[in-house]
Amino acid sequence: xxxxxxxxxxxxxxxxxxxxxxxxxxxxxxxxxxxxxxxxxxxxxxxxxxxxxxxxxxxxxxxxxxxxxxxxxxxxxxxxxxxxxxxxxxxxxxxxxxxxxxxxxxxxxxxxxxxxxxxxxxxxxxxxxxxxxxxxxxxxxxxxxxxxxxxxxxxxxxxxxxxxxxxxxxxxxxxxxxxxxxxxxxxxxxxxxxxxxxxxxxxxxxxxxxxxxxxxxxxxxxxxxxxxxxxxxxxxxxxxxxxxxxxxxxxxxxxxxxxxxxxxxxxxxxxxxxxxxxxxxxxxxxxxxxxxxxxxxxxxxxxxxxxxxxxxxxxxxxxxxxxxxxxxxxxxxxxxxxxxxxxxxxxxxxxxxxxxxxxxxxxxxxxxxxx
Length: 371
Description:
Number of strands: 0
Low-confidence stretches: 13-37
Shape: elongated
Structural class: mainly alpha
Helix content: over 70%
Distance between the termini: 164 Å
């Protein structure tokens, strides 16, 4: 607030006319005021005064509220603050106009018509300008030097506080009326809500009965479905168990049959192995016997060849009696034939035991036959 006051005063002081202009102010007319008003910067003053009026209205509202509170006793401080700021502004306006009442009237008219001061601010500005004009006299010097601003500001304060008090009372009345209307509306809404609630409760009770009946029916159907489902599950479980049992029996039978076939196969293989081993042993024995006979035959053959050689040697010698060597040679030849027969029989036995040897024996027989 002090900053606004200082700004307002500085603007007005800076706009104060010179001594020559003061002489002109005594006889100016409306046509000349435009130039003077422009020199005193009414737009700037209006902007500052707008802020000041906002503070004044706030102070007046605080004063009214303070008066309405019996517990407070400092309401005079608010009025003192207003008195001080009001006096400074009045003095600045008078000084800026060089104490000329008409200049103040014209100048404040221009200021109050600025766009910054509209609505209630315009009315308050006009009221303030009228209070200044009514307080000033026709004597410019007296206005500049001894204008009493206390009564002016007190009257203006009374006007503002009264206006604010009326406005607050009106707002309170409107607020009380609004509250009463809201209470009536709330009571009506409560009544309507109670009726709607009663209807809703009745409807809900009816719905609850229907829902209870439907719920009972639903549970009954649910129990039947559950029983059917459990029966179906038991049947499925029993069928599954039967099928599993059949599969298990089939698998057990298949395993038993496989085991039996494996045992029979093992027994047959054992018998075959036994027969093969017996045959092999017999063949080995026969082969050993044939080898022994073959060795004996070879020995006999050597003996026969030796005997034949001896016989031929004896034949080559001149003998007196020929019949005896011939008989001996015949005996030796007969013995050689027996030995060859034994040898062939031994080879046949060996061939029966060993296929390779049989081929060799067969080939030898063919060669002997060719010879």
